[in-house]
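lol forgot to send this yesterday, sorry. struct tokens for the thing we talked abt
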């Protein structure tokens, strides 16, 4: 197993190695999905998350061994870039990979665990935060900051931004970091980055207004392009869903 530690956690190397060795039997499960599992461990009084990525199929075992950087490594490296740019994300602790001479095996990303009040998802669901105009506006301003810093977060979706409610406003933290690009973004790319978020027109108007205020673009132009990006995504999404339903029926 190859492990790379963040500088501030190098002194905890043995404890972190022990967590990884006992990942299956210890820790508190925080999220268990079809692909990945996240557990919380105690590291000398500091809660840390360990994300175990799904083992790749036989083709990707070779791809990740020789040709492509692993999701765990990208998460670690991208987290450091975000922090350097002043963008919120749980502080990286380490990442680990197992390999053989021919194949890539298991991989883990370890980060500090942070407490949060909600994710963007609660803004579009039946919750006390649903449609909150202040949070939606603050989120749009946060997204503008990402774009200005040249951060194209390709998984900018409802579950991937943690939100803390503070006395003076809101703090946003990006998670699930392995799909990012860095560099100057066009206006169309910026608007398309909102496509997987709220499908509600009233929400989009709030976000468009806040984004326009930050960017000095005309509000009507921002709204038009943002709404088009979201509408086009919804069309593709439901078309794909209907196709899957038809294929399942014929099976």
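and heres what i got for the seq, position by position
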């Amino acid at each position: 197993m190859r492990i790379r530690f963040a500088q501030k956690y190098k002194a905890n190397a043995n404890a972190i190695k022990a967590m990884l060795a006992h990942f299956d039997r210890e820790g508190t499960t925080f999220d268990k999905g079809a692909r990945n599992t996240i557990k919380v461990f105690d590291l000398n009084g500091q809660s840390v998350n360990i994300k175990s990525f799904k083992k790749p199929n036989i083709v990707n075992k070779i791809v990740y061994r020789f040709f492509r950087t692993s999701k765990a490594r990208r998460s670690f490296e991208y987290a450091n870039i975000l922090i350097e740019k002043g963008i919120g994300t749980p502080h990286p602790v380490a990442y680990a990979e197992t390999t053989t001479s021919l194949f890539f095996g298991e991989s883990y990303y370890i980060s500090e665990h942070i407490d949060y009040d909600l994710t963007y998802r609660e803004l579009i669901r039946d919750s006390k935060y649903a449609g909150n105009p202040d949070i939606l506006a603050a989120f749009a301003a946060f997204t503008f900051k990402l774009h200005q810093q040249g951060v194209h977060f390709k998984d900018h979706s409802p579950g991937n931004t943690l939100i803390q409610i503070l006395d003076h406003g809101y703090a946003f933290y990006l998670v699930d970091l392995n799909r990012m690009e860095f560099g100057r973004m066009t206006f169309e790319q910026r608007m398309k980055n909102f496509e997987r978020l709220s499908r509600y027109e009233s929400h989009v108007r709030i976000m468009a207004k806040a984004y326009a205020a930050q960017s000095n673009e005309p509000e009507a132009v921002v709204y038009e392009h943002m709404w088009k990006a979201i509408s086009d995504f919804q069309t593709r999404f439901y078309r794909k869903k209907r196709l899957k339903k038809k294929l399942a029926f014929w099976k």
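The longest strand covers residues 104-112. anyway ping me if u want another try
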